[in-house]
Amino acid sequence: MPITPYIAQTDTRAAIDWYRRAFDAQVLVEPMTSPDGRVGHAEISVHGARVMMSDEHPELWVQAPALDRGAAATLVLDVDDCNHAVEAAEAAGAVVDRRPGDTGHGRIAVLRDPFGFRWMLNGPEVG
Q: In CATH, what is the architecture of 6-123?
């Protein structure tokens, strides 16, 4: 069975909009709002991978990553065209830490989204 990441966002609605622009994400479950106005749950599909998310709930130990330090985890995403995926994410505002390159294990790139998440994009080699 696959592992499904469940990530905390500072602003889930803004994150969904960004993932739509950057990764052509599809919304699987529209944001469900708690009585206090925070998003308690939402789901997207990114290149066929399901990602669940919510707004921060520090009282439940659910906090978004800090933007001023390294990520605790990396989300690895298989893509059909690594170059194109990086171009789209960068155009949407991602910071590219590692440009696409063939590695012998696929064409890999690493980027950070505006919400503090680190992504490794893995596609077929082109060289």
A: Roll (3.10)
